[in-house]
Amino acid sequence: MLAAQALIQLSRDLTSALETMGLASGSFGLPELVEKPKKEAEQLFQGYAKAKPNKEDAYAAALTFLRGQPLDSWQRDLIASALAEPIREQSNATVLGAKHFPSLLALYEAEAVRGELWRLTWHGLLYSYFNYASVANTKDDGARNGWEELRSFLERTWPLIDREAGVSVVPDWVAVLRREREVLSVNPVAKYAKAYLAGDTAPTDRLAADLGIPPSSWFWNALVLGVVRCATETGDAEFMRLVSRLLHLVEGHPGFRDEALELLLIRYHACKSPQPNEQLRDYVVSPRVWKNPKLRAAGIATAWNRVPDPVWMMVLAWVNERNLKDFFDILASRNQADEGRLAFWSQYLKQIVWTRLVFSADTMYLKNKNAAIRDLIAREEGAYAELTSKRDVDAFMMQIGSYIIIEFSKKPNACYVYKDDALPYDRYERYYAGGTDDLAFGYHGGCAARIVHREGWEDRAAVELRLLGIVPDRPGAHRVSADTGGVRGAARASSAQSDAAPASLLASHLASGRTEGQAPGGATFTMRRLEGLVREYHGAFIKDSRGASGGRLWVEDANQAASLANELSALGFKWAAARMAWYYPER
Question: How do 431-432 and 449-451 pair as beta strands?
Fold first, then answer.
């Protein structure tokens, strides 16, 4: 009886005690009751374990350091998280770039070796390591070198911090570094690049959250460069499929943009039969990226010096092809003046090593209303010229081998072909009149060829170009450089294989062409003698138009050599001013 009363009293006392502690509604003795306070305590611990000092205090310590003033022990702890912070009062210099930064690292390392470096201070140094914005594309070489010294310091001292942390409860960032210590190595992103390329961002997202890696960190730029490197190791088909995604990544994290583009372009050029990639072309030639490859020689687009000449020429060919197409599709088509010129010059596309667009006043005005013209002019910024005397006529310059060819967008302007070492104007002038004083100088002679766009002009032009050593591209032919002289050599080697001009027409134009092998009636010369004479003058040729229905024997000389003129006159040839050629007045 007494025992029962004692138990009842004990129960009442326990109930009263539980009510006093606010635990009356719970189940006494169960571990769930302390789970929430436990988690709150852990969060509090983790928060303290990666706490950063007051930002203003850290900034002040960095300013003191850059002013060359000594730091006390407390300021050394404060400055650890502000090493990469630009200091306004010091022209945005950083502690990383200071000449005496290595001495500060030496003090930290000495403390770490003695086991006296505060763990929060080391975490502040880790924060500065990831907070650095860039490595490659910075003008501050000192800061880049300082960042590398910081990385090396963290890699060396991490084992000391790891050992000191023990094996019991440790901060989250310590546990992460124990698994991911590669982020402190010389190849900090190699482990994650392959997964990131495949679209798996979970590992890097977790890493960023656990270590506090900001979006502006060098880490993301380096990761994109690592992804590009991984992509260049894939096969041609897979690499080409990835180009669009790679450009998107580079655009989002451009810190290593130039290095990434260098890898991309070189790898693309190495693909078997690489076709023009419009997205890659438009991105890399953008005025805010590498600019137009035509500007390399002018020292304006120097980024193109990063890649070998064959790679540069590949992109230059893409630009030339687009310029040629846009000239006729956008400019010449306004006057319904194409007349097959795009198709004709496209036959020589692989040999075009330089182009330049010359815009009329009307075209410059229309850029305010026409999006296509506005885009074309923007793409040619720094490379185009303007016409001053012909408001509604545009011009297109292109170089094939050692010849500069000028096409206009509208009749009655002929096409002129000049030797590049005998141009009657400066090819890099900003403004041209567009008349016989510059671009159309060849109207009165002095050009290698003059192409008039009358019916059947394509066949005649093909023959005249062939006489200059310029023949249509062969299937699979590689582009040749303008300064190698390879265009004419390749042309001569392949002339027998080309069927661009009808054989009958070609025969009538070549020096060996003749009608039944006979000289005109009453002539004092033979065809063999005439052929030998004309062959001595480059750019001159015989055109025998004689036939059953009439016609004459002509000699045309693009260079209008005076000595040839004297010889022809002595043989009885007459000058036809309208045609700018010599004919024999056969009776």
Answer: unpaired
